[in-house]
Every structure is written in structure tokens, then in C-alpha cells.
């Protein structure tokens, strides 16, 4: 759980709002009776529930349905735009947390709703419907890192969280936690729905999203996170994010401009 440096006003009930978070700021665990969309117009926001962690850079938006306990952590100076989704509209969106790509129309609608502009209640409601409509047919992004319940598997993922760049094999990690490679491989598949290699790649890509958003170079990011070479990093990043690290950085720069 993140260390809470201060508690920005993101979990108080309000229809639409914004909050400025410094690097490392966290918001304590909380839940909402309505759905919530969070869009970091700058910085990167991580949202964690008991199902895992979602990392949201400025070209993505996080959806958290009603009732899910969650907490946040900011990476870099993060301007978070928050839009509450009434229950009647929640039925159109998934019943689990996820991350969506932010289209130009969606981004502008989120900024208008949270920018302090005076809007008539009916106009605000229509704009919120536009936001939901923009998300209905957008595929979710594979930026979710699930977390295990099994103590043996959690011991392995804790080691990887502490050192994403470790070159240790699953067999080597298993020896450190007292579990066989075969057992751990089965647990990755049954509990997390993916292989050890896939889970570690997702973890590294989540770290890469944060580093690249903070201005790190692609080659430096690849080296720091343990990829054998920049090509391997670019291939893994593109397969998960849907764009190359260079394209991701350029898009962030355009949005900041």
C-alpha cells in the first residue's frame, strides 16, 4: 500500500472535480456508491484494488465501478480529473475496473466537466452521457496487473515488485520462497490467468509507463527494467500498450503542449 503523504480531495462526494497530486502522493483506501472515471491530464496515476493495479498515463482513463475499495498513488505531478458516473449509466460500462484509451472527444469532454466551467445541470448530464458513450465501444487496455491470493505466489510477486529487473527464472524465485517451478507455473495460470513471463512483462511495462511519462529515454528504460535489449522492450511494450515507447512519449509531449 502506498505511503500517504497527504490526502487530496479525490474521494469526497462531488459530481465532477479535479485534484493536484505531487509525486508520491496517495489517496487512502475508499469506495464509492457511484462509478468513477479518473483521467490524469498530466502525470501518471496508479489505482489499486484487491484484484490488482491499473496504471493510467495521460492518454488513458481508469474506470472504477461502484463498491470497489481502491486507493491511488501519483507518479510525477499529476492533475487528476474525476467524473462520477450515476448508477443508471454504470450499467453501460463493465462491472470490473479497467483502463480505456482516451479519444480526443473523450479527453475534451472530461476536461470541460472538471475544468470549473459553469454548466447547466441538463447540459452537464448530456456531456456525461457523451463520456459514457465514448467508452462503450472502446476495447479495454491490457494494463491491469493482477495480484495473487496464494501465499507462495504472492511471495514470488513481492520479490518481482521489489526488483522488476531481476533476471531470476521462475525456478530460481521458487527456490527462494520454497516452492517448485511446476507449482508456481500452475498458480500463475490458475490464479492470474497468465504465464510468469507475461506477468513480469506487464509489471515492467507498468514501470516503463511511469518512467517514460517522467521523461526517461527508451534505451535507459529498457536497461533499467531488465530487458535484454531495446528491441525486446519495444516489442513487449507495443504488444501490451498498442503503440511503441517512442510513439507513447511523443503523444504525451503533444498533450502537454
From TrEMBL:
It comes from the Bacteria. Residues 154-251 form the HTH araC/xylS-type domain. SMART domains: HTH_ARAC (SM00342). Keywords: DNA-binding, Repressor, Transcription, Transcription regulation. The keyword Transcription applies. Residues 1-34 are annotated as: Disordered. GO terms for molecular function: DNA-binding transcription factor activity; sequence-specific DNA binding. Residues 7-19 have a biased composition (Basic and acidic residues). This is HTH-type transcriptional regulator RipA.
Amino acid at each position: 500500500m502506498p505511503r500517504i503523504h497527504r490526502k487530496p480531495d479525490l474521494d469526497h462526494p462531488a459530481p465532477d472535480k479535479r485534484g493536484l497530486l505531487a509525486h508520491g502522493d496517495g489517496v487512502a483506501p475508499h469506495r464509492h456508491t457511484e462509478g468513477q472515471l479518473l483521467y490524469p491530464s498530466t502525470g501518471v496515476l496508479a489505482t489499486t484494488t484487491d484484484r490488482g493495479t491499473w496504471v493510467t498515463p495521460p492518454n488513458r482513463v481508469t474506470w472504477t465501478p461502484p463498491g470497489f475499495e481502491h486507493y491511488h498513488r501519483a507518479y510525477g505531478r499529476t492533475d487528476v480529473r474525476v467524473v462520477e458516473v450515476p448508477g443508471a449509466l454504470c450499467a453501460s460500462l463493465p462491472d470490473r475496473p479497467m483502463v480505456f484509451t482516451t479519444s480526443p472527444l473523450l479527453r475534451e469532454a472530461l476536461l470541460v466537466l472538471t475544468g470549473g466551467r459553469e454548466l447547466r445541470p441538463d447540459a452537464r448530464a448530456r456531456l456525461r452521457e457523451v463520456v459514457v458513450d465514448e467508452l462503450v465501444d472502446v476495447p479495454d487496455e491490457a494494463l491491469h496487473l493482477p495480484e495473487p491470493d496464494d501465499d507462495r505466489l504472492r511471495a514470488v510477486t513481492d520479490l518481482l515488485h521489489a526488483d522488476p529487473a531481476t533476471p531470476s527464472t521462475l525456478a530460481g524465485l521458487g527456490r527462494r520462497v520454497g516452492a517448485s517451478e511446476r507449482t508456481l507455473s500452475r498458480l500463475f495460470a490458475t490464479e492470474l490467468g497468465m504465464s510468469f513471463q507475461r506477468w513480469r512483462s506487464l509489471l515492467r511495462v507498468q514501470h516503463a509507463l511511469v518512467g517514460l511519462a517522467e521523461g526517461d529515454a527508451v534505451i535507459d528504460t529498457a536497461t533499467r527494467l531488465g530487458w535484454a535489449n531495446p528491441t525486446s522492450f519495444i516489442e513487449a511494450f507495443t504488444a501490451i500498450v498498442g503503440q511503441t515507447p517512442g510513439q507513447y512519449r511523443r503523444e504525451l509531449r503533444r498533450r502537454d503542449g
